[in-house]
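Q: What would this chain look like folded?
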Amino acid sequence: MNTIQIIGAVLFGLALIHTFAAKSFEVLSHRHPRHAGLFHLLGEVEVVFGFWAFVLVIAMALVAGGDQAIAYAESRQYTEPLFVFVVMVVAASRPVLDIMQRLLLAVAKLVPLRTELVLVWLGLALVPLTGSLITEPAAMTLAALMLAPQIFRQGMPEWLKYAALGVLFVNVSIGGTLTAYAAPPVLMVAATWQWDSAFMASHFGWKAAIAVLINASAVTFLLRKNLRLAAPADTADTSANKIPLTVAAIHLAFLAAVVVLGHHPVLFLGIFLLFLGFTQAYQRYQNPLIVKEGLLVGFFLAGLVVLGGMQQWWLQPIVSSLAPVALFFSALGLTAITDNAALTYLGSLINGISAEAQYMLVAGAVAGGGLTVIANAPNPAGVSLLRRGFQDESIGAIGLLLGALAPTAVAALAFLL
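A: My prediction, written as structure tokens:
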């Protein structure tokens, strides 16, 4: 333990406190309009970790010199923040969203229940499970945009919004475990521990699917009296600007290419630039791209990468010293304050870790992925897209924690039993 490590741990703690207090800054922005801009900036959850990451780099420069600070910042791996930014923008494009909405509506009409009830259930169950194919950040983006007009809107009781948000975050976190490449905490260990998609489906996937279905069914039942069928996204469409099948197919191809090349930032960023050019060429079939929201989420995750990289000295001894069952519950709790991918990555560095401990570490990490904004990489994307539906246009950390407790318990039981 040296001075830089202590500074890093202190700043990480301050960032956590700032995250939990973000909603308070939004309240202050209304009480003190003269400084509303500053308070609003500090109240943006997506800004928190990026802001404190810059403080860390400045502190490192003052203590150890500018060269060491720059070297540390450049030594971090930023593939995940870049990927989440790109996949958010592509998945939220109008043609992708339109075809997904039409598919879910077609499925909903086959079920002999209220259409809006089935659509909400599909958004909370089926879409998170598709995260095992299209990756969790893409699933979070699609689910958030589809559910926003039905649940996260004015007139819906606030406690129900938090209950639905908790289910969405937990289901996305565990819904990506049917394959070995879609969930960030699984991806961190899959190659090291030789876990392929068949292993994930047989050891994690079917348990996760049961928990997802239970969580989605329970919260849909709670929401049933407050749901209404949202107006279609393209109510103003005419035959001239309806999205052609070829345009939708090209957008889906862009999304698939980004997912397949998700570990190669040079390639998927190049594809993203082509995507931007295509959307500009066929602008009449587009809504404004969520570039701002995607950049904010990328900034948040990059800050988490920088700050999280300084926490290995105290996290890894905890992970390596626990028995399997204790490791499960410790991972579930630590995930809430560290990011589950960072936690499993530290576990992958432990030599001689048993197969049972490997399972318990990953199971606890994904089960706790909905407890806070920082617990799972796709969560900031959900917050960015849904916060306007909450009071003060801000999502409270305590509200999210309470909303996620019950679905987290269901996920934990599924993985343990």
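DSSP finds 22 helices and no strands in the chain.
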